[in-house]
Amino acid sequence: MEKEGFVSLFIGNSKSYKDLQNYILNSYTEDGDLLPSEFEKDFNIDYYNEDFREVEFYDEPSNDLRVLLEGFSYDEEIIPKFIELCGERLNQEANSVILLYNFQYNGNVNEKNQFRFLGTVQYK
């Protein structure tokens, strides 16, 4: 759910940057109704503001949270907080990161999806 000052972190593996983009892409019906992305379906997210989303695809997967989050907005603020929450080394490698700013995910997860939710921290 939308919540000012919080950021939710999702990691996973994609075959390519294009696959990652397709995973988060919303589409529309002929009548103009919004169809949720696969990402939104996997995590049962009704809505988030796409203007506050950042994504990154890495050619080389990593389990180092610092490497995965470096270069994102507020990285100096969020990296130590996510490391405190999850540890510096994750138990899986990932090549794709999705951050939703001003969003506090409630944690309902479809276990079959290619991404997993790691947590939410306050960034300001």
- Count of β-strands: 6
Most strands sheet: 4 strands, antiparallel
Fraction of residues in helices? 10-25%
Write the element-wise H/E pattern from the N-terminal end onward.
EHEEHEHHEE
Count of individual helical segments: 4
How large, in whole angstroms, is the Cα Rg? 14 Å
Give a short synopsis of this structure.
Pfam families: DUF4284 (PF14112). The chain has 124 residues and is of the alpha+beta class. Helix content is 24%, strand content 40%.
Structure explained in plain terms:
With 124 residues, this protein is α+β, with helices and mostly antiparallel strands. It has one domain (2-122). The chain has helices at residues 17-24, 38-42, 65-69, 75-86; strands at 2-12, 27-28, 34-35, 53-64, 89-103, 115-122. Strands 4-5-1-6 form a four-stranded antiparallel sheet. A two-stranded antiparallel sheet has the order 2-3. Strand 2 and strand 3 (34-35) form a beta hairpin. The radius of gyration is 14 Å and the shape is globular. The two termini are 17 Å apart. The model has no long low-confidence stretch (mean pLDDT 92). Pfam families: DUF4284. This is Immunity protein 22.
Q: What's the layout of helices and strands?
A:
Elements: E1 2-12, H1 17-24, E2 27-28, E3 34-35, H2 38-42, E4 53-64, H3 65-69, H4 75-86, E5 89-103, E6 115-122
